[in-house]
Amino acid sequence: xxxxxxxxxxxxxxxxxxxxxxxxxxxxxxxxxxxxxxxxxxxxxxxxxxxxxxxxxxxxxxxxxxxxxxxxxxxxxxxxxxxxxxxxxxxxxxxxxxxxxxxxxxxxxxxxxxxxxxxxxxxxxxxxxxxxxxxxxxxxxxxxxxxxxxxxxxxxxxxxxxxxxxxxxxxxxxxxxxxxxxxxxxxxxxxxxxxxxxxxxxxxxxxxx
Amino acid sequence: xxxxxxxxxxxxxxxxxxxxxxxxxxxxxxxxxxxxxxxxxxxxxxxxxxxxxxxxxxxxxxxxxxxxxxxxxxxxxxxxxxxxxxxxxxxxxxxxxxxxxxxxxxxxxxxxxxxxxxxxxxxxxxxxxxxxxxxxxxxxxxxxxxxxxxxxxxxxxxxxxxxxxxxxxxxxxxxxxxxxxxxxxxxxxx
Lengths: 209, 190
Fold this sequence. Notes:
The structure holds two protein chains of two kinds.
Chain A (H helix, E strand, L loop, with lengths): L15 H17 L14 E2 L10 E9 L2 E8 L2 H15 L5 H7 L12 H6 L2 H4 L16 H15 L7 E6 L5 H13 L4 E8 L5
Parallel strand pairs in A: 1-5, 2-4, 4-5
Antiparallel strand pairs in A: 2-3
Chain B lengths: L29 H17 L6 E6 L20 E6 L5 E5 L12 E3 L6 H16 L7 E6 L5 H14 L3 E4 L5 H13 L2
Parallel strand pairs in B: 2-5, 5-6
Antiparallel strand pairs in B: 2-3, 3-4
């Protein structure tokens, strides 16, 4: 009797194509990547159909959000030289002295939300600690102690003193669930300084909305 | 899966000729693919693909005390007032609240394609025909109540852009009948 021999199939698969695809995707992701930066005040922006991208430089972002039941406003500047200059001018105004090291460290902070009196402690912290939820109480903006107004004002002043041609742009990055009066307050502060045109930061919405 | 490299020689047994060994030309790619997919996963999780978009908003100068506000008369046929309320609700009317235009009585509506857009789109077209002047199109007056959210504001501004409403304004003061409407709207939502 002739035995039927099972044909032995090779157990290996040709991986070349798979490897190609994998590396193609990898290249794509590396090239399009912009690393997520941790935010001290995470907000969920509402979506819209506008296609205009947020400017990358010369921008000041006012983040309005809620954390731990309180409405907070955070202040962020995009350009590092503007950050340093603004800190210097704000320090002079409020009588807080910052060392050059602190100033250099401050230039690395994207966004903060503390009264200027407590800014030194925040600067001294490590990045991960700084972004802990609920640590930063937000920038005071009531009528008695309106530091937000001063930050906006000094940022513009710093921008001019640095000899930049373009004026600073202002963007409000609000949480979708924020109630209108909170946003209105920020708009009023901007308008009080004759900033009548600003951006609202939104996400992208599907085409057939 | 790994290809075992059993180097069985090419040479014939007992043959006189010595052939050079044929090397197996296959390289094991499994590990490479593993690595590539690991990196892809890493990059996918750490990147934010959709860059934030910016919606431009220009507001008029604030009225100051030294400049008395100037009342500008506007054709009532051109104005649609939109009151933004609680729970994503809208109340709108066309013309004056006491004497609305035909089909423009104060009524509730929602956002989006089936909502406020059905009100605005036809009017964007019809109003220049009614006024007989191309430059005199629809004017939308947006009145956000205290209960409305930031999302509502962005949605309605987006709607203005989608419908190509020529003129719109955000107005924060309410007349008495409008106040009543707004209260009704915010109460009814609960």
